[in-house]
Design a protein that fits this description.
This protein is mainly beta. It contains one helix and 18 strands. It has a 16-stranded parallel beta sheet that branches. Strands 1-2 form a two-stranded antiparallel sheet. Strand 1 and strand 2 form a beta hairpin. The chain is elongated. It starts with a strand and ends in a 6-residue tail after the last helix.
Amino acid sequence: MVHGKRVGKRVVKAARRPEVRLPELMAFDEGELTPDGDYDGLEFRDADFVGQDGGGARFMDCALTGCAVDETRLRHARFLDSVLTGIRGVGTDLAEATLRDVELVEARLGGVQLHGAVLERVLVRGGKIDYLNLRKARLKDVVFEGCVLVEPDFGAARLERVAFTDCVLKGADLTAATLVDVDLRGAAELDIARGVDRLSGAVISHAQLLDLAPVLAAEMGLRVAD
């Protein structure tokens, strides 16, 4: 059952968080990822996956901790019931990947490609992600908590039951995005560079409305003068 918070006469449906319970894991000792690899119940600790190709791979009940993923190719990969902690890298390719029941904790990523990806019951907690590309992605039951997102691109994406809690958004792009039950009230900083007209379907606080007033006025072509 999805609970929500009432705003006026309308209830904002709350995002459902993942409930990941990992089994006893075995250490990964195969050295490199392989395309279409099948990884089940494994622990990847401090692994160096820089430049490797794991496109189409499936990670089920896995823990990835402290792994380097610079330029790692994980297009069409599937992460299911898994926890990714302290992963770091630039240019990671996760285009059209699937993340379902996943916790991403204290990640340090730059230019990660998640365009066309599907995220369902995902928690992104802590860390910093620069230039996150989520164009045309589908996010459902996703929580961004205590993290910093610099210039995230949600262009033409669909966000349903997505919450931003103690999260900093800098220069967010919502161009052509569709928002349904998106809760922005808990964002520590809310800066929308483009697509402010797509905020229908989201809820913001009164203070955030005042902060966004200049952007909203510009969008409407409204001149403000004393």
